[in-house]
Design goal:
This protein has 215 residues and is of the alpha/beta class. It is built from seven helices and ten strands. The strands form two sheets. It has an eight-stranded mixed β-sheet with strand order 5-2-6-1-7-10-8-9, sandwiched between helices. It has a two-stranded antiparallel sheet with strand order 3-4.
Length: 215
Amino acid sequence: MNSFFFRTACLAMPLLFAAHQAHAGPTLDAVKKRGHVQCGVSSGVAGFSAPDAKGQWSGFDVDICRAVAAAVLGDGNKVRFTPLNAQQRFTALQAGNIDLLSRNTSWTLTRDASLGLHFTAITYFDGQGFLLPKKLKVESAKQLKNAQVCVQSGTTTEKNLADYSRTHKLGIKPVVFDTYEASLKALFSGRCQAFSADASALASIRNKDAPRPDD
């Protein structure tokens, strides 16, 4: 789709960090008093944030949370993780349920201006793509005319999909779900012909979640 975006870390106001120096404030004071950073992550994307059988989190986004804990509290282990879906992530940050959001979140002008949050830095460049069965023999997204495509609600992915369908007159029918897990279940059960999400997440799904990855 050639729709590129930025994966970012964002913080509750007031800032934990600014570009040049740390500013003390209610959030930072609360973290120090509590003794750990409460970090919001995705509900499970291999390579970015996923718990193992013992509940231990690992991945790129998780490492950012640990780095913040090390910088603020001197110990990268002083962090607790809150798994959040796309609809929950900003509300949790605005409500103060988490101090930091480190998960796949596109940095857009609208979000930057309207949410009352601060995006701090680009942590990952990604793009949007489609995952679908090989048996459909689709070589281009432009072949998805009138297709049912699973997508998660409350995401830029959903908006991009609608824009792409309209621009190319494809008549794509979005099948929208609140959670990542529900979207995958619909894809693998055949309810959708394709699933649209971050390209990195699609690679994770194919390798970790697909019943038959080669298909």
